[in-house]
Amino acid sequence: MDFELDETAVMVRDSAREIATKEIVPRAASIDREGRIPPEVLLLLAKNTMMTLAVPEELGGADVGVVAYSAALSEIAKACASTAVTMSVTNMVAEVITTFGTDAQKKRYVPKIADGTLRAGSFALSEPEAGSDPGAMRTTAKKDGDHWVIDGAKQWITSGDFAGVFVVWARTGGAGTRGISCFLVEQGEKGLSIGHHEDKMGLRGSSTVALHFEGVRVPESALLGELNGGFKIAMMALDGGRIGIASQAIGIAEAALAAAVEYAKERKTFGKPIADHQAIQWMIADARTELDAARLLTYRAAYLKQTKQMFSSQAAMAKLYATEAAGRICDRALQIHGGYGYVKEYDVERYYRDVRVTRIYEGTSEIQRVVIGRSVLG
Ligand code: CAA
Question: Given the CA of residue 178, which atom of ligand 1 is nearest to it?
Fold first, then answer.
């Protein structure tokens, strides 16, 4: 058993750390305040292969594997969680197209995600009344000659207002999970409109929008994977996506812990730095321990995916544990800052808001427990 990152993963992690430190950290507070990621930040990530880390080189990807991807994503999340989720979903979209696409689909979209032309990819699965239960979706795609016509609404769509390509799920058959197909839809398609922008508690730099499909016509060639086989594509993509969100949560918590340690060494009460009080030391010790456990679970899931082994329940465990631990760590980090943690002057206030959603999106903690429970019980 080897607990060290290999040379490639170290290189990719360090490169992400450099971009994060030089280019993203200085902008993170304004990304949060202004509610938008400057396009040049996303382009910079793409130019450094960060949007397609686990995608083959012939499609423009870096092909460095899932462990390196996880390490890199945590570095970006340490700097800015909003940028990290945009990177995570875009990598997920590029991988879905790479895995399930025809040659023509791969060539049409993946190199343009890789070089930043498409800016981001969007994953349009959830609906106003189908979040945890996507098998209940209502959006439909009906055949009309050699086209599909999509009608319906999607909600909570990350980067939906500027992504160049959407992976869209729609009902093409009967009720339930076996009547759903997956389509590739381009931004600007007639009948596709951007709805409400969510005014979120955290991750304010990442855009989250509703999408409306009114008679959106796409050619037969837009079908991704098999007809009525879309639900499994969503599940497989989310298995990988959950490694991304676990990695994101780890990055946010690493940043919160680092801020807490720095503050604890400087701030004095009762004549000594608060780091000298056992109450604070215990909070920091618990945080470090939980973070290491989260990291190991996440690397295990990433390694299993990278080596093409079953990883669904391991990804769910990583996401469940990492996101819940990260929530506790950000809470402790804020507590260590006292009143200063509750004001925007200190970054820990942002970490606390940003981390909360990691327990909700790409499958709530409750859904992760369903996946793990089913796997244990058979
Ligand atoms: N891999 C491959 N196939 C899978 C699978 C997996 N991980 N999980 C399930 N399947 C298959 C099953 O084998 C089954 O196949 P058959 O039809 O051949 O029998 C089929 O899919 C249906 O499976 P279930 O009966 O288990 O489906 P279910 O309706 O009970 O749902 C669930 C299972 C795990 C709860 C699933 O609904 C789920 O993951 N829900 C959460 C959805 C989610 O995570 N949404 C996130 C939105 S995206 C997002 O947040 C992105 C963003 O922008 C940040």
Answer: 17
